[in-house]
Amino acid sequence: MPTVIRQATTADVEALISIMNEYIGDFYQKPKPPVEKLHHLITTLLDLQLGVQFVVEQNDQTVGFATLYFSFSSIKADKVTIMNDLYLQEHLRDTEVEVQLFKHCQTYTQDHGFAHMSWVAAPHNTRAHRFFDRMGCTRVDWVDYMIV
């Protein structure tokens, strides 16, 4: 079954809301945000000023997505991407499609002149840790904090 990975367009908003709700509610078991907030986030990213989203399609169905946010690194004194999301439906995890989606994000980062791409993975998401290790990624010694 052919897989297409491409930059999201306005035609993808409803499908992205659906797959993002699956990711948030089913995968991470977190409360789903109001549809209006997801819609606003997606349409904000479509302008390519704060970030970009990619969709993964098989048989005209959205089966995954990735989100890169644009930021800066003081250490590098340059712009960077932060891969906030890399999600595929379960049947596509640990497949070549996952590799393709990751590499798509990596290529976008390089082709658009960003210094590097970084991300975090939940401590309990050991499957993701194994994937990133296989991809030759480097674990770094930073600890994330947040105020809620």
Automatic annotation (TrEMBL):
Coiled-coil spans in chain: none
InterPro entries tied to this protein: Acyl_CoA_acyltransferase, Diverse_Substrate_AcTransf, GNAT_dom
Record-annotated N-acetyltransferase domain positions: 3-148
Tagged with keyword Cell cycle: no
Entry keywords, A to Z: Acyltransferase, Transferase
GO MF, any single term: N-acetyltransferase activity
Name the record gives this protein: GNAT family N-acetyltransferase
Organism of derivation: Paenibacillus kyungheensis
